[in-house]
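DM between two lab members

TW: hey, do you still have the FMN-binding negative transcriptional regulator entry open?
JB: yeah, one sec
JB: this one, 233 aa:
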Amino acid sequence: MFVPRQYRPPDVSWMLRLMRGNPLALMATNGDPGRAPLATHLPVILDPESPLPDSDSLAGLGLLAHLNRANPQWIQVRPGMEVLFSFTGPHSYVSPVVYGLPTAAPTWDFTAVQVRGEIVERFESPEDTLRVVTATVRAYERDFGAGWDMTGSIPYFRQILPGVGAFRVRALSVEGMFKLSQEQPEDVREKVRDHFAHRGQGRDLELAGLMANPRAASACPCAGQFEELKHGV
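TW: and the structure you got?
JB:
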């Protein structure tokens, strides 16, 4: 992913929080020779059994994912194969009206993380697949749910497991782009930030919060929570 210097996140916790808060990723893989690449939207979580790397590059980060075994892309899932996960965070259109300038061009502010990874394990046994599914449920109930207890539904999970393909990925590289109008003068950036804040929509409010001070880790909603992410809190 091409990331101009001014759009790089100030630290890796920004990227981890975006991935955790926007876990429906797009997985892209190479197609057959002469054919288009394959792409699937699928749930991806941080592997709770894999410690977060200490490196700022996040190389070695462990991820778990699953998709429908009827999906043609599942055939490609095998150890050693490279995949690309694309996570999209808050984003919104910026009209030139917001700038209050005689001449300007519109743009789209956005946040995204791309993970280039290698498949290290394709789970074939029902028990291994079930562990991925239950780990995904726990992660999503923690971050988005209402504390649902899955215990009574495990027998149902076992019934649908034959159609689930689960696998583990190790990140080779992780790149984030947080385009928050950093190319604009500070007074114009303030106008854009206020515009997002006053619109009152969820993704716009998130952008406004990130724009409060994009060059400082304290501006990120995930600031101070990197250790929590390490422990899966």
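TW: got it. The first helix runs from residue 12 to 21. The mean pLDDT is 90.
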